[in-house]
Write a structure and sequence with these properties.
Layout (H helix, E strand, L loop, with lengths): L19 E3 L3 E2 L2 H11 L4 H4 L1 H6 L9 H14 L7 E12 L8 E13 L5 E11 L5 E12 L7
Antiparallel strand pairs: 1-4, 2-4, 3-6, 4-5, 5-6
Length: 158
């Protein structure tokens, strides 16, 4: 269930497991896929040659799985949940590339808090998130969990 407008700059103590948000939609372009291929030096023909991708059963060139994962982080950042309280990403778990992402697809992120707990260092906490990148057909194309290190209320910047 969507939790209304996303609050900004949450501290780890503010996190309520089960809260969920949906981001705005993003249209994937062939130019973005090509730029990601150039940036990462991953020029596999599935990402660069339409005929090759079609011969493998896809409707055209597909985005790299890591392109989708990086986009998930960017869409999450646009929610501004940790605008001034984020410290670090602690890592991604349970990442699954479930469906291909094609140029022309429109995707959005469904974000949900799983848990929050204090870290070993005072003034910080670990927030666990569930993320799903959803295409225009309502299919989850990538699912993952993410751990974020976030400031606590007593360490929040003024």
């Amino acid at each position: 269930m969507l939790s209304g407008p996303a609050p900004r700059s949450l501290c780890w103590e503010d996190v309520q497991p089960g809260q969920e948000w949906r981001t705005d939609e993003h249209a994937i372009t062939a130019e973005e896929i090509a730029a990601f291929a150039a940036l990462t030096r991953d020029h596999h023909p599935l990402h660069t040659e339409e005929a090759y991708a079609r011969a493998r059963g896809f409707g055209g060139v597909i985005a790299h799985g890591l392109f989708g994962l990086a986009l998930m982080e960017g869409l999450k950042t646009e929610l501004r949940l940790y605008e001034t309280t984020s410290i670090a990403s602690l890592g991604w778990d349970k990442v699954r590339f479930r469906c291909a992402i094609l140029a022309g697809d429109r995707v959005h992120l469904r974000f949900r808090f799983l848990s929050a707990r204090p870290s070993r260092e005072a003034g910080r906490g670990v927030v666990m998130e569930s993320l799903e990148l959803i295409n225009q057909h309502g299919e989850a194309v990538i699912t993952a969990e993410h751990a974020a290190l976030v400031l606590g209320r007593d360490a929040r910047p003024a």
